[in-house]
């Protein structure tokens, strides 16, 4: 895989630390200076480790955590995607292919997969955690799929997860990119348990010696109150509209300050990304298992590589940081059905083509 300098392989190894203690295997994302953002070598190393532990009788559970104080994982390496998209490369498509396969493996993993979702958990960070068996958030957790702000669409199975959220909460989070704290992540089904952050090191250590169930009983607490439960009425009404334009209109006419703020947030996002995201969320309910959702997301992601908004969005938010993207088209009214449908076009021989356990897996819809 590695064609760079001799030291590159060692650095790739250092970016994902693997160890076993007792009957538990531990994965530590170790790029704290980049908020543990995922690279393709990191994804492949995690996937290879999970494949090996799956058949290792000495490993009863897997724990994934992030190094540093800021969070589990901020997502994929956005700058690398930016450079690839600018030059018309294929590296991003290869990265997503491996990443989405890893997401599917995690979702079907036959042993308890415990994700410590402390701090920032965004984009690809959601993909390596929220598909797990046991998903733990803390008072510091900020779980988000902020892709529309960079001209992209929620991926890594994010459309699947958000479509499962009660009412239209997932639509709200997907379109606005708003972060969910612990209580909101629990309500939306993105996490299972709350544990205070100061207790996570002890919890992780205890998992080496006792079962996941036993350990959780000792540490799980009640999450501090969130915002979404009290906002359900206006969120469900406004986001049930058929189009993004209608959603914005309902938000503005609601008379609710939080709804008007959401409308302003949508006004800053990529119009194309908003429309494709809404279409993806609505279509994913008809697709069945996660693998079909990932295949749809792969089509969308590959199409986004040739869309001007992805490069422009990353430029404005990450590279130049002027926070003033020039979207093309610049308004919702100028994004037509053909523009949206392009993102769902079949890829032929390049399809993701995931296998799945559909016959043994209960489809949630």
Question: What are the defining features of this structure?
Answer:
ECH_dom, globular, 365 residues, single chain, EC 3.1.2.4, hydrolase, alpha/beta, 46% helix, 6-stranded mixed β-sheet, 2-enoyl-CoA Hydratase, Chain A, domain 1, 3-hydroxyisobutyryl-CoA hydrolase, 17 helices
Q: What can you see in these coordinates?
A:
- It holds the Pfam family ECH_2.
- Its EC number is 3.1.2.4.
- Keywords: Hydrolase.
- There is one protein chain.
- This protein has helices at residues 8-15, 40-54, 78-87, 91-107, 124-127, 158-164, 169-176, 182-187, 200-206, 212-219, 228-239, 244-253, 257-267, 271-284, 290-304, 308-319, 337-341, and strands spanning 16-21, 24-29, 61-66, 71-73, 113-117, 120-122, 134-137, 142-144, 193-194.
- By secondary structure, the protein is α/β, with parallel strands linked by helices.
- It has a single domain (11-348), classed as Alpha-Beta Complex (2-enoyl-CoA Hydratase, Chain A, domain 1).
- Strands 1-2-3-5-7-9 form a 6-stranded mixed sheet, with helices on both faces. It has a 3-stranded parallel sheet with strand order 4-6-8.
- The protein is globular and about 60 Å long.
- It starts with 7 loop residues before the first helix and ends in a 24-residue tail after the last helix.
- The model is unreliable at 1-7 and 358-365 (pLDDT under 50).
